[in-house]
Amino acid sequence: MMEQCIFCQIVEGKIPSKKVYEDEHVLAFHDISPVAPTHVLVIPKRHIASLMEIAPEDHVLLGKIFSAIQTVSRELGLAEKGFRVVNNIGEDGGQTVHHIHFHVIGGRTLTWPPG
């Protein structure tokens, strides 16, 4: 775990979160600054800084993350009408926390571009 990483601190229980899903490899919790009625972050428990740092041995972990996204979207009632999954990469991509995470956003009609 990275000492300065806020998501690693959430995984360790040092910072509280409103969890919606947890297993051995993945944690999902409500975003503290939601952009829609439902806005959950899905993260691996192991620190990976960004999508660009995914290694071949991480492919199984990515499958577990997307399986968790399916579970979360069903449990939160998003699966039937739809939702958006967003991953920001790097400074220009809007990544502010350097621990790979996926935003699961829904609960209303979403527009493009986001706004």
List keywords for this structure.
115 residues; alpha+beta; HIT family, subunit A; five-stranded antiparallel beta sheet; 21% helix; globular; Histidine_triad_CS
* Sheet with most strands: strand arrangement: 1-2-3-5-4
The total number of structural domains is 1
Full CATH superfamily name: HIT-like
CATH class: Alpha Beta
Q: In terms of structural class, how would the helical and strand content be classed? A: alpha+beta
Low-confidence stretches: none
Query: What best-fitting shape do the alpha-carbon axes yield?
Result: globular
* CATH architecture title: 2-Layer Sandwich
**Pattern of helices and strands:** HEEEHEE
Number of strands: 5
- Alpha-carbon distance between the two ends: 33 Å
Helix content: 10-25%
Radius of gyration: 14 Å
Number of helices: 2
CATH fold name: HIT family, subunit A
Largest beta-sheet characterization? 5 strands, antiparallel
Q: On the 0-100 scale, what is the average pLDDT?
A: 95
Classify the beta-strand content into a percent band.
15-25%
Helix and strand topology:
Blueprint: H1 6-12, E1 19-22, E2 26-30, E3 38-44, H2 59-75, E4 83-86, E5 102-106
Antiparallel strand pairs: 1-2, 2-3, 3-5, 4-5
Protein name: Histidine triad (HIT) family protein
GO molecular function, one term: catalytic activity
